[in-house]
Amino acid sequence: MANTAVADADSGLTRAQLAARHGLSVAGARPTLAAYVKQVWFYRHFITTYANAKAVSAFSQARLGQMWQVLTPLTNAAVYYLIFGVIIGTSRNVPNFIAYLCVGVFVFNFAQLVILGGTSAITGNLGLIRALHFPRASLPIAVTLTQLRNLLYAMAVLVVIVLATGEPITLQWLLVVPAMVLMTIFNAGLAMALARLGAKLTDMKQIMPFVMRTWMYGSGVLYSVKAFEQNLPAVLAHLVNVNPLLIYIELVRHALLENTVLTSPAPRLWLLAVVWAVVMGVGGFIYFWRGEQEYGRG
Amino acid sequence: MAELNVPANVATTAVGERIPTVIVDDAHLIYRIYGAGTGSAASPAAALRRIVRRQPQKPTLREVHAVKGVSFTAYRGEAVGLIGSNGSGKSTLLRAIAGLMPVNRGAIYTQGQPSLLGVNAALLGDLSGERNVVLGCLAMGMSPEQVKKATSEILAFSGINERDDFASLPMRTYSSGMQARLRFSISAAKRHDVLLIDEALATGDSRFRRRSEQRIRQLREDAGTVFLVSHSISSIRDTCERSIWLESGLIRMDGPTDEVTKAYENYMASR
Lengths: 298, 271
Hints:
The structure holds 2 protein chains of 2 kinds. The two termini of chain A are 39 Å apart. Chain A is elongated, with a radius of gyration of 24 Å. Chain A is mainly α. Chain A has one domain (34-292). Chain A is built from 13 helices and 1 strand; from the N terminus they run αβαααααααααααα. By secondary structure, chain B is an alpha/beta fold. Chain B has a domain at 8-114 and 192-270: Rossmann fold (3-Layer(aba) Sandwich). In chain B, 36% of the residues lie in helices and 25% in strands. Chain B has helices at 8-11, 44-52, 90-97, 129-139, 144-158, 176-188, 206-221, 233-239, 257-270, and strands at 20-34, 61-75, 79-83, 105-110, 115-118, 194-198, 225-229, 242-247, 250-256. In chain B, the strands form 2 sheets. Chain B has a 6-stranded mixed β-sheet with strand order 5-6-7-3-8-9, sandwiched between helices. A 3-stranded antiparallel β-sheet of chain B has the order 2-1-4, with helices on one face. Chain B is globular. Chains A and B meet through helix 1, strand 1, helix 3 and helix 6 of A and strand 1, strand 2, helix 3, strand 4 and strand 5 of B.
């Protein structure tokens, strides 16, 4: 074992040349985009298992346990019913206001929790990142899936509320599925973009709650944004109309409720929904991939 | 354990040249730590003053230069011990070799994907031991069928079920020794080209340590390279024939374990 003491027993090669000669690769190098997509697909079982585990462990310390998956949206709806249905007693000229409100709250909540979770997807999991090797995009994608799972419970509650408020079951209800698929892609892209931003700018976690509150008022969650057009300059009003969260909320309302007043015609909303999903989904993924090798650093 | 039991055709090429598995070339590693604020930035007024005056160095951001230019080459079938006092950069270096932390300068080349087995390989504490095994195996890139097959083996090897059905309890209820045993068992379930072990065996009892040292030897015979960080010099002497001594982020000595550990022990005794 005498020769082990010599670190470089090679024939005058530099270390980089030696590495190339034996086919060694740079540790933690960023894979190509195509290879990265393949890796993420290969890790799909890890992503879904991790997302489910996170959803389950969120309630594991509560006495009622997994009941909270249904109780959370139910309580949410009850609070809004109490405030807007009973105390204020307003419908703000919206037919079936309670159902209208619940769609807005549940769908917006999905986006909000994904966005807040995505912002800390990297910074909150540094232990896992420094311990195990997996494509880091798994984390923001898992955040999205965890919240999608919560949304499905909320949707079950929503269907009950919608039926209880006297809406008929129609074929149009099926449109909820593509709307949710598009929104999930949009959310995943946004979660990935924010995960990278949040890893670089640690102040993001403080800023995001304010961004989300502003975004909520512009997304027609609690009221219709129709009135905005009279008060806002044309540019801003247009901006509100192409707001992706407003679009996804409106599409779900359009699918579930009979007499919804849309801000734009339905085909235009669908077109915008697809454009947002593609732009955010692909853009967010590429943006996240470009930072892949940086995520281990504190 | 004086000689390697690796067949010549595995550890060397046809011309008798040894095959490198890890090449570290002048690696520098710097940690960035936020929130390590000094007293001057403790109040909002001080923070504002700092921003207004555009002070170049952010006081809430500190940099720790953990590894300062380290170079070495490790070969197939080798077990390398890493020793050094606390904070000498051993764990950071292992993380970088595993590709979990990017180098700031220099380069690290590895064969395949090295696996790091550390004490703080945090899985989910709220989940049962069994769910953690499944999650850990999936994170190592196993397929669901492989995981299904491996799960019972891993639980048996870890021995956490010896007294009670601990596998179904949340992992946060485990003692640190049990957690370490389960984590080692998960990592050891897969064949690795390069396995990096960071103090992971320190908390297990003597029976488990024997079992795990045997498993490490087995992994090495599968033509792998093993790095072992430990403060237990006897465990380094038992498993490694080569040792690297790190001090303050620099290599102080690199050579046969006997010589390096002797020098290290003299150094520690003199302080």
